Amino acid sequence: MALQGWRFFGVSATIIIYIGGVLFLSMNNIPGSHPKRPRIERFAEFPSFHSPRFPMPSRKMTIRWCRDLKYINRDLPIYADYKSDFYTALPSDVSAALQSLPALTALASFPGSGNTWLRYLLQQATGILTGSIYKDYGLLKTGFPAENVCNSSVLLVKTHEWGSKAWAPFSKAILLVRDPEKAIIAEFNRQSGGHIGFASPDRYKRTKGKYWQQFVSNKLKGWEMMNLSWARNFTGSIKVVFYDDLVHHTERELRSILDFLQFPINEQLMRCAIMRKEGIFRRKKRLLSFDPYTEAMRAEVQNRRRIVYGLLGRQEP
Ligand SMILES: *[C@@H]1O[C@H](CO)[C@@H](O)[C@H](O)[C@H]1NC(C)=O
Ligand SMILES: *[C@@H]1O[C@H](CO)[C@@H](O)[C@H](O)[C@H]1NC(C)=O
Ligand SMILES: CC(=O)N[C@H]1CO[C@H](CO)[C@@H](O)[C@@H]1O
Predict the structure, then answer these.
(1) For ligand 2, what atom is nearest to the CA of residue 164?
(2) CA pair distance 173, 236, nearest whole angstrom
(3) How far apart are CA 17 and CA 89, in angstroms?
(4) Minimum CA distance residue for ligand 1 atom 2
(5) Is 229 touching ligand 2 by the criterion CB < 6 Å?
(6) pLDDT digits (tens, 9 = 90+) for 244-260
(7) Considering the domain boundaries, does residue 126 fall inside one?
(8) Cβ < 6 A, ligand 1 pocket
(9) Which tens digit of pLDDT belongs to each residue from 12-40?
(10) Is residue 256 part of a domain?
(11) Domains: count for the chain
């Protein structure tokens, strides 16, 4: 009897530990819709976000928002609320604008092209949350609680995918394009830098530089496909935003993006967003003591960039 009691206890404990373990693992590894891609994306475009001064991006990093963020509630426009918030537009204009918003807008970009920064700016300027087809817990905790929301309750939805499946849910898209030279380094840092956020110089030299070379050539193809397939084959309306323009003419670009989204501009929020455009991110150049691109690589990257930028209608100096 006593033995059976012990056996029962032992089996129960094993089962409980097992279930607990499975739960723990599944909580940390929720399958996404794109299992092949890394689902963790931090602020790759903001190297300092990972700097040793901020060792863990998910802790203590609170963004001060110009206004409390919320979802778009299309069914129940609360007029009194909109009246005070969107004081530049009449309440009826606002609700009409919100209702006429097309189903869904994608924020399509190659990783490392500044999509998180653009989402940050848009959330500041509108007070409305932006979504994503991924669920990045780092972002979830640092001011992007609508990670994994992909419906009309968000302003737009981040994606790094392309192809007919990727754009099926969307009727509009903003294609954010960054110089591949920078985007590829940002992506390399993100994939290999861990919490510190930078690839160590050794990583560029791994297997006599072949690893990095292969990385650049793969990513360059991806960059090109991403850009061109959205620009050419997506059937909805598309707006191409160049990262450099966003950096140098932030307000002008934001206004034109909101115009594209048919979202009414609130001047007060816009001023606030521009004031806080860098937010907690201070962009700092990583000082690599060497140039990771060889002459041949750079020539190839620049050649590709010229072709793609040309096709996207941008003249290169
Ligand atoms: C949007 O998606 C979220 C999460 O999947 C869900 O909670 C919410 O109800 C959805 N909203 C609409 C308007 O479909
Ligand atoms: C885009 O369309 C062209 C034909 O117009 C097709 O050859 C190509 O495979 C398409 N690309 C994607 C990524 O769907
Ligand atoms: C998907 C897509 O449009 N790919 C094109 C990318 O650009 C090259 C030329 O630069 C084309 O050959 C591909 O078809």
Answers:
(1) 14
(2) 7
(3) 58
(4) 149
(5) yes
(6) 999 999 999 999 999 99
(7) yes
(8) 149, 151-153
(9) 766 666 666 655 555 554 433 343 443 33
(10) yes
(11) 1
